[in-house]
Specification:
Elements: E1 5-7, H1 10-25, E2 44-50, E3 53-64, E4 67-75, H2 84-98, E5 103-109, H3 113-118, E6 122-130, E7 134-142
């Protein structure tokens, strides 16, 4: 059974960034540097490992005011549809609650909207088109009163 874990280990973070790049950037010809940002060291990274390889990941950042943001969710090719994204998201939500975060927001790619809806997120608005190609939607979820 897979387990979502948290890490601050630089080697694991590098492997997580590599997965983000492979799934979220490389297919559009974007550089690896776009798979991370200046908030990396202050964010919470969750990952799932299978046979020594990172197969799913996601990141939580504290935006202040009790609001967290999930970013860089990725599941490796051939691993999608197995519930790994749900495990990552649940682990990040647990950590958000422990950090005092009560509301999560994220920018979902069009092809991921239904996944996030199934996890209790609601579409707030159509937000932006990444690289003039990939439509994103602002989605939110309230964590108050939730036991995870």
């Amino acid at each position: 059974m897979h387990q979502a874990r948290l890490t601050t280990d630089p080697e694991l973070i590098e492997a997580i960034i590599e997965l983000r790049y492979e799934i979220l950037r490389k297919p559009w010809g974007k550089p690896k540097e776009t798979a991370t940002d200046e908030l990396e060291s202050r964010s919470v990274n969750a990952y799932i490992e299978d046979q020594g390889k990172i197969v799913a990941c996601g990141r939580l950042q504290d935006n202040g005011g009790g609001i967290g943001q999930v970013r860089y969710m990725a599941v490796a090719e051939g691993q999608q549809g197995k519930g790994l994204g749900k495990l990552i998201l649940n682990r990040l939500e647990e950590e958000a609650l422990a950090m005092g975060i009560r509301s999560i927001e994220l920018q979902a790619r069009e092809n991921a909207v239904e996944f996030y809806k199934a996890q209790g997120y609601a579409v707030r608005e159509s937000s932006f088109k990444l690289w003039d190609i990939i439509q994103h939607y602002l989605m939110t979820k309230q964590l108050q009163g939730r036991s995870v």
